[in-house]
Amino acid sequence: MAVFTDPVVVTCAINGPIATKQDHPGLPTEPEEVAAAAEAAYKEGAAVVHTHVRDKEGKPTVDKGRVKAYFQAIKERVPNMLIQLSTGGIEPTYADRAAQVELLPRMASLNPCTMSFVMAEFRNPPKEMRMLAAKMKELGVKPELEIYDYGHLDVAMSLVKEGLIVEPLSFSIVLGVAGGAAATPANLVNIVNNLPKGANWQVIAIGRFNLPLTAMGIAMGGNARTGLEDTLQIRKGVLGDNGALTKRLVGIVKAMEREIATPEQTVKILQLPEPKAAKA
Ligand code: KMH
Ligand code: ZN
Q1: pLDDT at 94 over 70
Q2: How confident is the model at residue 186 (pLDDT cuts 50, 70, 90)?
């Protein structure tokens, strides 16, 4: 069994695109709520906040003013925390996704393949997805590659060959979405075994599989993610919050005698580029 020495990068995915305030009254959607959730997670050890942007009604939006308001609120409260913006979603056009990335989050998700997403169609067409990858590279925004199934990894590797993304790669292995690979230990082991050397990775296991597969990922040398996007409950029947979910995750990492990465260490571990300003 390998001994892992790098500190573990903890990401908190504070809201996601799907859950509503009816599902969880504490779901952060307003800029101030988002910033408070980021701060709660940061205080417990999260270096990265992954966020989807919602409008005043709580619906996903690509409105640049709203994205700016999120970034500003987070930066005011937790200036050191690294913002990872989601570019995922069913509705937004790729032009809108690229426009969001121009606001220079430190990282942004990149979903390499089209797939069924439960009952929805999650469209990530090859050409447009490549345009978004190129935009991230031009702006110095590190892509977080979302791998929902085995073939998605092959597509990510073809982006390396085409010079659209640069190593070391950062992967989220997403398991348990109906339309992608199931949340099983065997799938996690097999996908991790196929990752390129030197890649950073974390597990995103949906719902009740979140905790066991996240713990397994840490034991296998991965980074770790939690938050209300991935699991609304902290225990069966008990709603969680971003601070409490992060605290629990950090406890597991420490129990395995691994250190927690600060934002400064995270920049080095993930080799985040310095963001460049967007061309006018
Ligand atoms: N919601 C997860 C299934 C993204 O934001 O682009 C994956 C995710 C992807 O976080
Ligand atoms: Zn997300």
Answers
A1: yes
A2: very high
Average pLDDT score, the chain: 96
- Judged by its nearest atom, the ligand closest to the C-alpha of residue 88 is 1
Any atom of ligand 1 within 6 Å of the Cβ of 174: yes
- Per-residue pLDDT for 280 more than 80? no
| Measured CA distances, 126 to 159, 219, 277 (Å) | 10, 34, 26
pTM for this entry: 0.97
The residue whose CB lies within 8 Å of the most ligand 1 atoms, and thus the one to mutate among 96, 229, 232, is 229
Read off the pLDDT of each residue in 102-109 and give the average, rounded to a whole number: 98
Across the range 2-18, mean pLDDT stands at: 93
Q: How far apart, in Å, are the Cα atoms of 280 and each of 101, 103, 116, 132?
A: 14, 12, 36, 17
Ligand nearest to the CA of 146: 1
